[in-house]
Amino acid sequence: MPESLPHQEPDFRDASCRQMDVSVVHEYFFAERRDQAKRKMAKRICGGCVELQACRDYALEIMPPVGVFGGMDEYDRYRISHGGAS
Ligand code: SF4
Fold first, then answer.
1. 3-state SS of the chain?
2. What is the pTM of this model?
3. Among 1, 8, 58, 86, which has the highest number of CB atoms less than 10 A from its own CB?
4. pLDDT single digits (tens) 54-73
5. Cβ(51) – ligand 1 distance below 6 Å
């Protein structure tokens, strides 16, 4: 028996961002760093998402280079993965 299960991508079917128009997701979840208002809005949407914890764990595992995932942008992920507070 393997010691750990093979990596599996979570099922995000019910995720808040999956219920939104793709262009809106792109605009807010992949906003430029200088556009903090849009990033904050994306993080707020994550805060109400049923997949928040799974998405957060997955994002910290795969470390997407840009974008808001699990309520974190790339700077949050970097800070947390290097021992900073979440
Ligand atoms: S936590 Fe945010 S990025 Fe992750 S699935 Fe939910 S809405 Fe999408």
1. CCCCCCCCCCCCCCCHHHHCCHHHHHHHHCCCCCCHHHHHHHHHHHHCCCCHHHHHHHHHHHCCCCCCECCECHHHHHHHHCCCCC
2. 0.87
3. 58
4. 999 999 999 999 999 999 99
5. yes
